[in-house]
Specification:
single chain; alpha/beta
Amino acid sequence: MEIIYNIENINDVAKQLIANLTTKTILIYGDMGAGKTTIIKSIVKLLGSNDDVSSPTFSIVNEYEADNILIYHFDLYRIKNIEEAYSFGIEDYLFSDNWCLIEWPEKIESIVPIYYDRIDLVQNPDNSRTLKLNNKNEFNLKNMLSNQK
């Protein structure tokens, strides 16, 4: 799925996104300013949370509640390596069966569940965004296969 959108349409985009997700583990890729936190704010709201959503840049993870579900929002920009992720218990979150929305997931790709959704965000020259959703698990499969050699 690929959508080109403007910020005014963020809630419509988030609705389409939620309708096309296949898991609760969402890896969100994009450069600084691409709109990762903005799309997460809309997703969290549409999942039913009234919590104030902000980027957990320094706390690493924020927890939101919505209609008897938990949503974990990670910003892994500041972690240096996977050991730091292990030190705050990343695997407990990832395998909790709760929503995990992860910004800057590059450092933990090797430990994410087999099934996840990948979102790539790009800011276009006209300030619109391009969102690509990939429901396949080829990235983790590659990591698993290379670790078996």
